[in-house]
Design brief:
Blueprint lengths: L1 H23 L2 E8 L9 E12 L7 H11 L5 E11 L5 E13 L4
Antiparallel strand pairs: 1-3, 2-4, 3-4
Length: 111
């Protein structure tokens, strides 16, 4: 009985250590940012933040996908500004995901 209990405890410890190594080895680093708003604030309305996480091995990532995500959240969205691009992966050499975020805006019609 003691032996079974010891084996089960050791198994749990080994699994926890393996989990820590897996989680501890992932990286998240910024790739690029373009953090500027259009000059005249009276010509647009801020709708809200939009975030897109895309797997590079499958769909890829880009501005058009981020704009589509913005239009899904805010149907009146015309543009995404203040864009930040981060990469996420198991190591610095193997980046699997791109996380893009920005601010969705609606351009107001001026007469």
């Amino acid at each position: 009985m003691k032996r079974k209990n010891l084996i089960s405890k050791l198994t749990v410890v080994v699994m926890l250590v393996a989990l820590l190594f897996t989680v501890g080895c992932s990286t998240f680093r910024p790739l690029e940012s373009n953090v500027s708003f259009p000059g005249d604030g009276s010509k647009y309305r801020i709708l809200g933040r939009v975030t897109l996480e895309a797997n590079l091995n499958r769909a890829g990532a880009g501005y058009n996908l981020l704009l589509k995500e913005a239009m899904d959240l805010y149907p009146e969205a015309d543009d995404v500004v203040n864009i930040i691009v981060d990469a996420k992966g198991k190591s610095a050499k193997k980046l699997d995901y791109v996380v893009m975020s920005g601010i969705a805006i609606d351009y107001l019609e001026m007469d």
